Each structure stands twice: as structure tokens, then as C-alpha cells.
Amino acid sequence: MALEKEHEVEEPLISDHNLEAASSEWFRNAASESKSRKAVKFQRRLLFFLLTVLPWNLLALIILWNFMHYVRCPVQHLLEYELRYFGTGHKGDPSPYFGEASPELDKAWEDLYPSLYQLIPKQQAAKLANKTLIFPHDPQRRYVIELDVFHQLHCLNMIRQSTHPEYYKGAVPGVIDGNKEDLLFGPHHVAHCIESIRQALMCHVDVTPATWIWNEDAKVMQNVYATPHTCRNFDKIRDWASVGKYGANVEAGFDFEYREMNDPLDPKTVKKPDFALHVEFNPALCASAIGVGSKRSTARTACDVIARPRAADLEQRLG
């Protein structure tokens, strides 16, 4: 019995295989728990970023976007959008802006831009991307701008009138007279207007799709232009630009050859002060120069350089 006990081997509670498996399982659980903790930390940081940092960044971008548009456009706050259907000008779809030249047609076009130029205060002019000038002879010293939409309409009207040269000959100053090329309706002006309108069309890029239908009577495909377009409210901008608070009344003419001076937004127009009237004056120094044994002409010249009027007055008082 004793011999049997000597040879009896105690079996471990956990075998090496089970121990290795348990150890591996522990490490896997520990690694998984570590990854889980890291994931939770990452989620918390992401949530903090989304709830705090990101909204402020978005707000800053929105403010910057609005500011960039505002400084370039003093009517940004008036912009509204609406759906409009375009007409064709063909028979059965008349337009007040299309037809043979007539006083009524001219009036319709002129009403599109009752004031070609607009006047804005210094506070708005200072925020423009490009500097502008004070409108000549304006009592309020406002700054002149020209909203590009009105320049484009003016150009389109010039092109329209150029298609009726006989009707408009002599209607306005500068029209073709004999062999002298017209400065308003001449080839150069029309070419400028065409180029201006081309750039405007390509800038705004209206992507409204015009569709096609089958004309059963004519047995042909034809365009359908009566498609809703998303447009800015033109009437609001025209009302703002009309003669009044912002519109420039140029019935008497635009004095292009006159430049307002002392423009606070243009240092080149600020008149330099008279040095003799504004330089610091030292009466004692000037009196000393006159009283010492130097020649009076030399002393007088020195006083003139310092301050001519005051030096002359001082010399008179000194006898």
C-alpha cells in the first residue's frame, strides 16, 4: 500500500492545456475590453466634437459666407427667389418688350432701369470689393455704383435699337451723323454689350431644362420654353434702384469730368494742408532770430519758413 502511494501522482486541478486555453481567453477578453474602452473614449471625443466644435465652425463659415456676399452687394438683404415662366415672344405669346420700334416699346424698356446709377452711403461703399467715387455734385456726398443687371439691360436695349438704325437715327446724342461713327450705337459699343451679356449668361448658368413635345399638326418636334425658372425678384431690386433714396437722378447729365475731392475712401483726393499754416510755431525761437545781430532779411526768411502769417504778426508787434 505504501508503494502504491509513492507511485501515486497528483493530478493538477487545471491541466496545462486548459491553463493555456484559459490564459488565451483572458488575454482575448483583456484585449477586447481595452478596445472597447478605446472605442468608448473615441465615441465620447467624437460626440464632444460634433456637439461643440463643429457647430461653431459651421456658424463661422455661415457668417463668413454672408459677409463675403454682403460686402460685394449692398442689396443682398433684398434678394428673394420666385418661380417664373418664360415667354417666347412668338405669335400668340406677346411681350411688351418685343415688336416693331415705337415710343411705347421704348418706354417699356426704359422702365426696366429708371435709374442706371445708384448712390450708396460711405459705410456701404467702404465694404465694396472695388473702390468707387463720390457722385459728382451730390449734396450728401454719396458714392456711385451701377448694379450690373441694369448695365446688362441697358446693353440689351442698345442692341435692340441697333437693329432699327433708321428709326433711332438722331434720337439721342452721338448717333451716326454722316461719316462720323456713332459713339453709342456704333460697332464698338454693340460689341462691348454683346460681350457683357455673354459673360453674364455664363456667370449665372441657368440650368433650367427646356423640354420637347411632338406637334401633331406640324408633324415636328418643338421646344417647350414654358418651364418654371427659379429667379430673383427683379421688381424689388428695381424699386430699390429707382430715383429716390438710392437712385441717382441724372436727368441733368452725369458730369464725368468732375472729381469730388477730400474723399475719405480715396487718399489721393485729400488736399494736403498748407505747411506754412499748420507747422508748429515757436515764437521765442523766431523772436530770438529777429533780435540777434543777424540780418533782418535772413531772420524774416527763417520766420516765413516756420509760419509766415504768425511770424509777420510777431515782427510787427516787436516793432
TrEMBL record:
Q: Which InterPro entries match?
A: UstYa-like
The superkingdom listed in its UniProt entry is: Eukaryota
Pfam families listed in its UniProt record: UstYa
Example GO BP: mycotoxin biosynthetic process
Query: Which pathway does this chain act in?
Result: Mycotoxin biosynthesis
Q: Which UniProt keywords apply?
A: Membrane, Transmembrane, Transmembrane helix
Chain segments annotated as transmembrane: 46-68
Family affiliation: Belongs to the ustYa family.
Task: Provide the protein name.
Answer: Tat pathway signal sequence
Record organism:
Scytalidium lignicola (Hyphomycete)
